[in-house]
Amino acid sequence: MHNRILLVSLISLPLVACQPHPAPNVAEDVGPPPATMPCCQYVVSGGVAHPGPRTLRSSDTVSTVLAREMPQPPERAITVILIRQAPEGKTRELVQINAEGKLMDEKQDWTLRNGDELVFPGGEGSNSTRNPTGPPPRSGE
Fold it and tell me: What is the C-alpha to C-alpha distance for residues 73 and 120, in angstroms, rounded to an integer?
């Protein structure tokens, strides 16, 4: 007799544990993040087509930003400056780019962090005569 009671108890136990739960309200779960959520950004300045802030992706490195911001190779070696905030203040790293638009030193392919700035040669306020990411100079310039 005890065996029958135990058997009934074991069979009904999973049924109690598998009670249906109400479906989540999808409309409440989907939507824009709250306005107070911090947004990670980096800044591109200097000789680029559209200087300004960019949304930081987790996969962004110096080389991925170079590929996006320099669709055409610079045709000569250039130096890009990576400015980042450190505990001791702002730091500047000179990043050498070859004429094909690739890093000369792969160790400089740092992952970008919130608040970093990449400064390209050229652009407003620069002594450079050629914007490496803009249109080629016209003849006579």
Answer: 13
Please give the CATH number for the structural domain made up of 41-120. Answer: 3.10.560
pLDDT in tens, 98-131: 999 999 999 999 999 999 999 999 876 444 444 3
CB 39 within 8 A of CB 55: yes
In the chain, where the domains are located: 41-120
DSSP string, 114-129: TT-EEEES-STT---S
Q: Can you tell me whether residue 86 is helix, strand or coil?
A: strand
pTM of the model: 0.61
Among 35-39, 85-89, 127-131, the minimum mean pLDDT is found in 127-131
